[in-house]
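Hi all, long-time lurker, first post. I run a small reading group and we've been trying to get comfortable going from sequence to structure in the token notation. Rather than ask abstract questions, I figured I'd post a concrete chain and ask someone more experienced to write out its structure so we can walk through it together at our next meeting. Sequence below, copied exactly:
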Amino acid sequence: MTSKHATLLDVTRRITERSRPGRERYLEKMAQLGSKGPQRGRLSCTNIAHAVAASPANDKLVLHAERQPNLGIVTSYNDMLSAHQPFATFPELIKDAARSVNATAQVAGGTPAMCDGVTQGQPGMELSLFSRDVIALSTAVALSHDMFDASVCLGICDKIVPGLLMGALSYGYLPSVFVPAGPMTTGMPNSDKAKNRQLYAQGKIDRQALLESESASYHSAGTCTFYGTANSNQMLMEIMGLHLPGAAFINPGTPLRDALTQAASIRALELAATGNQYTPVSQIVDEKCIVNGLVGLLATGGSSNHTIHMNAIARCAGITIDWDDLNELNDIVPLICHIYPSGKADVNQFHAAGGMGLVIKELLKNGLLHDDVNTVAGKNGLSEYTKEPWLDGDKLAWREGTDSAIDATIISTVKKPFAKTGGTKLVDGNMGRAIVKTAAIADEHFVIEAPAVVFHTQAAVKEAFDNDELNRDFVAVVKQQGPSANGMPELHKLTPVLGVLLDQGFKVALVTDGRMSGASGKVPAAIHVSPECLNGGPLGKVRDGDIIKLDVNAGTLQAIVDDAQWQAREQSAPQENSHENPLFELFRSQVSSAETGAISLYKTL
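-- Answer (accepted) --
Happy to help. Here is the structure in token form:
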């Protein structure tokens, strides 16, 4: 067996020690809440009659007998969101699978599923991050009825999977298996789509041409094919052992996808306390599981949004991680995947080249993952996830995956990586702590020193660009975009604008206490600056013309201002924000920092 990297062990040990009090409290609570028999055994007859009144007659007989497990389906189905539209048919597949093993399944509840692709640059984006916590709450509401012995969580996109997992962990004494719908088939290459966005930003193509381009890229059911937050979610669920092996990137509407959905349902029932393989989600999501997720994020160049989501997920399991943990792992985990925007391939091509099975095999072989973990596939460790699913006739089976990439320009090796360090870097300095997604940034852009141009909205950046005010070297400082200020919207509309200027030869970077898209690309961006401006963060001291130095190599973010002057300088006045919905004022007033997961459900765990 390959020995584990010393830093992997050190980081895991540090997280375990730091988390010990919270983790022990969490596990003790889960043990108290669990039940050896069917959960509905604790309900009154009236309670059960309400819960099964609309069930088919045969299901009622099984549910009344209180011997077989009942599976709760938590679904984020809607038919506006392409990635979630396939979930319309999943409940019946899941119920049929449960009946095939003499068990039952019910739709426990639904969660909202908003699309960042629709809300980018719109007021609705101010609700996006907080929708994760709404999803966590609605998942908990669905599982609160004591009717279920296990759950399957149907979700795939940006805030939805983290929210589902946070909610499932609040009922962590139940097993939970995550069930994706898969990516849409390949359409227009993502690089061509990005070029057309830049042409539109320059006024070189019209709205109709842009719409045709976008529609050729986003063209059918399934997730978007670039490697943003949605597909990073699927990578995480696999490398953390919460999917069945190889489930992440099978296209929707295929026999293999349906077979995996039904197998996931049966597996969830097998893991229930009513059987002899009891494995609740609280025993899967532990310190080693969280570290594996961070390693996967770094090795694949995954979404910067997960530098927030992973911290929130960990805290819901009684575990405390921070950006120092991620940064230390970044130094030992090489970038071994080139998926758009860090490369030209989409996730379908990544999957065909060897996919998650090969990535996990390569990382295990080099001592960069914990194999000794519980997973929904069993207690044999993460090595089960080097296998790939296939249909042997009409029977689902698994076979060992490839040992080397079908296309080495998409998946490389630890010894010959695309970059020696991972895809995400912590920078720190007198402006605060921030995250830089490095996977798609060219080496020559890792260091930039230029005057600040201060903005308070991304619309103001676009206006300055349209007025030819930005044809120079500069650092765009976009303030008051943090979770307390306006919900921390993604500022993805800045990508084409700043990309144009970068291509024209200007030295350009972005610094903000807001977020960028999970598909953040070639423009160097120090994001999630913490503490945020509205909470007294020093980013609020930056003025137009201040020289800003972002040095990704050194891990520093510095305003080159005399220290005494910097200390004496006042914060800029807060800007009045017009929020989309007053219902979310409570979230803004309660939310924690980006580094602690931007959790609005509670400030301390």
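A couple of things your group might point at:
The chain has two domains: 6-185+220-400, 424-596.
The chain has a mean pLDDT of 93.
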